[in-house]
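Format notes (please read before filing issues)

Several people have asked whether sequences and structure tokens are stored in separate files. They are not. Every record keeps both together, in the order shown below: the sequence lines, then the token lines. Line labels are part of the format and must not be stripped during preprocessing.
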Amino acid sequence: MRTPSLAALLLALVGCGSPDAPRLDTAADSLAFRVTEAAGGLDTWEALPGIAFEWAVVRDSVEVARNWHVWDKTGDRVRSEFQIGADSVVVAVFSPSTFDPASPVGQAALNGTILSGEIASEQLTGAQSRFINDSYWLLAPLKVFDPGVVRAVETRDNVVGLALSFEGVGLTPGDRYWLAVDDGSGATTGWAFVLESGNEGDFIWLDPIELDTPLGPLSFATEKASRAGGSAILTEPEALLEIDEALFTDLTPRNRPSLP
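Then the structure lines:
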């Protein structure tokens, strides 16, 4: 895949007349803008009231982990549901914008029974950590202009990419990501990362789908397959135009269908 010129990257600025559009000061900003536009655009994302998605890990064709999240964006609420042990399911509800892991606020339940004290705090913190991780796998192309994100254009193996680092934000600010960008459409076709923990990964993004929203479609890759083979991350998103209030008041686990 050829590497676009700096001038080609800056063409992304042309036609961007929205007053809420991010300011584009560098070639990296222009590339990041193309990435967001290929995913449907930041205005489209901001107008969506909510989103639900499953996040599953498959190794050697066997599912080894699954989480389910419902994000009421308008109401600033998240419901996270995940399994611990062979037969126990935690459901947690919290506010993503104000959550403090040092002093967790929200509700958590184990198999439908409300938890309290240190156990509740532990499960709330675990839920928030899962939500941050899982939502980034789904939403990374729409988060490249988040506060604290440092962007750079970087080419690897003759493929132009958007390198992302972080200025002291997030749970693991030492993480580093590189998004592979299609030079025609601007779509994210894969990513590689080196995490603060030392873990590394390189994944191809596959099976894109479009979700209808009030302002138009949003595009999401539903499978991220490891280039090394043997493992994949599966996500199955659902646009929420209306929010089911019971999801945030009834913490009984809900059975979710298996991902393909």
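For reference, the curators noted about this record: The longest helix spans residues 117-139. The helical segments are 6-10, 27-38, 42-47, 117-139, 246-249.
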